[in-house]
Amino acid sequence: MxxxxxxxxxxxxxxxxxxxxxxxxxxxxxxxxxxxxxxxxKCEKCQKRIENxxxxxxxxxxxxxxxxxxxxxxxxxxxxxxxEKLKEAIQKLGYTVAPLxxxxxxxxxxxxxxx
Length: 115
What we know:
This protein is of the alpha+beta class. 54% of the residues lie in helices and 22% in strands. The protein has 2 domains: 1-29; 31-114, Alpha-Beta Plaits. The protein contains 4 helices and 4 strands. The protein has a 4-stranded antiparallel sheet with strand order 2-3-1-4. It starts with a helix and ends with a helix. Residues 1-22 form the signal peptide.
């Protein structure tokens, strides 16, 4: 009887710990945000320079540098960085950086879906 009870308790503890870890993974996904900047880049060298620098910034999880539109879209973890820090990282490279207006973001997303 004691063996069955102990086995049951062990299974319950294992099931509880599994569900708790699944919740933390789900909560971690909620911490991601996205920001888009207009950047004064002019050539492919500028594009590569921004990509190489931002890909190593703490908290950056995704990056899209669009040279024709002169936009940089960054997906990042909220707890590790902020839009201000990301903007400063681009400015340190010598580029002018401005937040992309909301209407332009919607058009940019629509263009991505069409391609």
